[in-house]
Amino acid sequence: MYINYYKLQYMLSVTNLTYLIAGRMIFNNASLQVSIGQRIGLVGANGTGKSTLLKLICGELLPDSGEIALVRNISVGMVRQDLPHDDTKLIDVVLAADTERDSLLKEAETTEDPDRIGYIYTRLEEIRAYEAPARAASILSGLGFDEEAQNSAISKFSGGWRMRVALAAALFRNPDLLMLDEPTNHLDFEAMVWLENYLMRYEKTLIIISHDRDILNKTVTHIVHLNNLGLENYTGNYDQFERRRAEKLISQQAIHEKQQAQKNKMMKFVERFRAKASKAKQAQSRLKAIEKMDIVDAVIAERTKPFIFPEPEQLYSPMIVLDNVDVGYENVPVLRNLSLNIDMDDRIALLGANGNGKSTLVKLLSGRLTPLSGEVKKPSKLKIGYFSQHQAEELDITQTPYELMRREMQDQAEAKVRAALGKFGFDKFKSDTKVEELSGGEKARLLLSLMSFDAPHIMLLDEPTNHLDIEAREALTQALNNYTGAVILVSHDPHLVGAVADRLWLVANGTCKPYEEDIAAYRDLVIMQRKKERSGTKQKSQNKNKSNHNKTELSKLDKESKQLEKKIAELTNKKELIESEIADYSTKGEYSKIENLNKSLSLVLKEMEVIEADWIKVQGKIEEANT
């Protein structure tokens, strides 16, 4: 529901929210207040209702009881899934996300009402509509789309790239309340760094679900913890939340234990003296005191299910040698001249933007790709575990984890099969649950168990944390650090990279080489490169027409000139119409109506000035192209 601002102390108020899914309680009398400008991170174990809460706030779902109230007339933005599949350019998909701008521009071309024209142009200035194309291009660039990609059809993109476009559209809308659900899942490290900086500067209200500790430390002002069917609000970032929650739990447990000791003491008195007439009154008094106690619950620890990788047998080093290898697809190299060694104690993270070849290198190491030239040397006994985020799509969703593991372990006893699954948090119930009913995090655990059950000497992990919550990521980090084999890691999670990897390889410019700095230095390098790219793009834009001398460019400029001339003619007609109405009202002495007309006339003249300036620029470009 929406109510007037003066009736509501907060931008968003959730009061006594109760919501069930298939009879299972998700929220029970949960309450939350969000003030304008707060940036909130939603955290909690998988299945506690984080995504559900966002859908309830935006009205996609309705509560079973309770109330969700938003200030009237605020805009709410989420990442939409219904992107077009046609030839619409990426830049136009993003621009269309601002529906107000789009409709105002269309109406400005058709309306003849001077008052309406005045309002339209005032509103377009207020929302900075004429700066929108540059802003949309900047957002798309930050998320990894160059100028050519921005002008390509949306139908050419799939999967994670479409999700980036959807994210760009949500950011471009610049809503009063922006709600993001795992926005970094489909981003590489470079795009994640850009998003992190963008959200740090976001001046409106933000609610974000993220399993990325760095994002939650750098972009939010409050943490809301979904726990025990309720919403617990903490001031500060994620690290501060962890400390304060730990302190709160210690205090709660101490109060509980003290209260239980007091209760036990009173009960002993009651049991001892309730039968004695002289003490019966005191015994009854203590019973009533016990009944009136505001009971403080004992702390129930949130236990994160484990990851336990089997210990591999020792193998001589180097385990893998790449000798002047070229690798790619359909005889077209993606990476060239690879000469690298991998030892059993190596912990290597691959850095580089999406599309540079990180996954290609991992597939080469796993044996899923063969070299186009050069040699890959491996011992015959080498066992390799390979994890890719896309493998979840290949799982047979009609099977259970037990059935899938049994197929891999073949003649092993049932107890051993279940023990292998148990190392990754699967009890008997979950082991016998169909894959289609598992969460994203549970599917990731299943893939990790399937790839490591035979104790591989090296694990190749391509984005293993995308569907894991923060606690599960910490458990995975600990498990990887306990594992004695080699690890090759591709991850956009800087916390995981920093905690696990002791070597970094940079995949860029068609090859892979050791990177001698740490992940923090690489982050700074990414930021610096983005600044250079923006500067270069700006300079390129300024000089663009100096090198365009072909007929295609002239045709384009001629078309642009005619469009501007048509617009000038339309504005001239509107100007004359308004001037005529002003003259009529002046003759009649109806001066009260002239004020609005003068305002409309001023706006039309201002737009004419802008359009005429654009027309003059186009004429200059035509002259340059002709010479």
Low-confidence stretches: 2-7, 541-550
Per DSSP E runs of 2 or more residues, the count of β-strands stands at: 19
Major sheet size, sense and barrel closure: 6 strands, mixed
User: Which fold does the CATH topology of the largest domain refer to?
Assistant: Rossmann fold
What do the pLDDT scores average to?
85
- Spatial sequence of strands, sheet with the most strands: 6-7-8-4-9-10
- Report the span from N to C terminus: 62 Å
Category by helix and strand content: alpha/beta
- Count of runs of 4 or more consecutive helical residues: 21
Taken from the alpha-carbon principal axes, the silhouette is: flat
Oligomer: single chain
- State which percent range the strand residues make up: 15-25%
CATH class of the largest domain: Alpha Beta
Region (Disordered): 532-559
Keywords: ATP-binding, Nucleotide-binding, Repeat
Organism: Candidatus Jidaibacter acanthamoebae
Protein name: ABC transporter family protein
Tag the structure with descriptive keywords.
627 residues, alpha/beta, Rossmann fold, 4 domains, 6-stranded mixed sheet, 19 strands, 47% helix, flat, disordered N terminus, ATP binding
